[in-house]
Amino acid sequence: MDAALISLFDGRLVPNEPDRKYLTSVIFPNLVPLEPGRVLFVGCRSYTKPYEAFFQDSEYWTLEIDPIHAKWGSKNHKTGDVRHADSLFAPGYFDLVFLNGVLGFGVDADDDQDMTFAALHRIMRPGAILLVGWNEGRCSDPLTRPTLGAAFRHQALCGMPARKGFAASTHVYDLFRAVGGSPSRADQLCGASAGPALRG
């Protein structure tokens, strides 16, 4: 990872929470080398705007329900409800999806979680990676949702644990891979030669 790019994310551009630092210093650097062809980041705020720079070689999209925050979206942006993402994007379109800070902050009820996971699965390629970031106490644990379990496999990826929590925060990250692809393709995604595997 370019040192100049990393420097964009310290100081004022990124909140000081340990989960946000983990996102930019661990998760992004581990997933960028997979060269995902199409990436979706759900939710836009001022501090998410620079994230696009990490994925400058990908087709990077943002999705945000509130039009007032569209100014923080990427050049490829849609305003809409993630629960109905499958009405906004083509089936099997994305290789990598970030759903961070949305559960419990708009997508709250269990039924809303189920709708969200089902819609995301429909717009993701088989074997695509889903990162879910959520806060304990604000919503049900996503792992308890049957829709998520049916559509995605919870697992460690690219040297990162399947679940990562923080002592000083209620935030939790969970990593998943969309089911539905052949085992050979799925096993490529985070293997030693996984560089081009996510590019469609």
TrEMBL record:
Any single GO molecular-function term of the entry would be:
methyltransferase activity
Q: Keyword set for this entry? A: Methyltransferase, Transferase
Q: Which GO terms describe its biological process?
A: methylation
This protein's name: Methyltransferase
